[in-house]
Structure of ATP-binding protein:
Amino acid sequence: MKIAFVGKGGSGKTTLSALFIRHLAHAGAPVVAVDADINQHLGPALGMNEAEAAALPAMGDRLPLIKDYLRGSNPRIVSAETMIKTTPPGEGSRLLRVREDNPVYDACARPVELDGGAVRLMVTGPFTESDVGVACYHSKTGAVELCLNHLVDGHGEYVVVDMTAGSDSFASGLFTRFDITFLVAEPTRKGVSVYRQYKEYARDFGVVLKVVGNKVQGQDDLDFLRTEVGDDLLVTVGHSDWVRALEKGRPPRFELLEDANRRALRLLQTAVDATYELRNWERYTRQMVHFHLKNAASWGNARTGVDLAAQIDPGFVLGEGAVVRV
């Protein structure tokens, strides 16, 4: 299952995504964790020190390798240079799976040990000084979108992505690549404004959106969120001494996380697992094609010098475990 955590900056989405990753790892589930935020904090939230986090390989810097591997022998893609972030797979493409070793993971992923469990962590890489004034962060997150377009994952396998703040993911089709999106919202007008914007943008694309109320301190906060987001409010989370200790660099054992927060994480997993039955690989592939054609016409054809619509293989649907001819 593919899960996104979104929300405005400072909402606590990185903290909650890291807690959910720890929860899954503690249960023994296979997890690929991806930091796709311009502020790269997922590594430290998973217990890495600053030096370890800074040494993580950036997906954005390894985009040529990613493209070359995923292209495989697909005859519709004449070169890795003609692949863009929305390029869909077809016959001959190589796919990524959660439980495997491959050159993309070798180059971009690093194992993180968490209370006896382990996850693969991948990061887009920070926005560097050389990027200022000449690039946008979508050039980094494009590597994530390309990988998700070529990813086949099954029940009980989890890919958790800490997304960019606000609604930046709507600059491409990245927001449609998930089985469920958790929007982390504080009980404030600013907190719920991102929810309204996200819900409006995602309305026509079948996005499963649930709100996680964070920094909820009492009944008034809870009533505010219920009034503002209605049935989309899944669960709320309050203060955590466990998280505060982690932020000081002294993380306790995960078993010591407060009972209320452990129950909240179990509710998140229940919601995630319930979306498995809603999976529609044909729609998923259709959306890939839709955004690829939009990006091709908008900038991709001019950038690459080729007609990127020719990359679409009309006889294929991305399916669990394989690319399936229909």
Remarks:
- Confidence is low (pLDDT under 50) at residues 130-137.
- The CA atoms of residues 60 and 231 lie 37 Å apart.
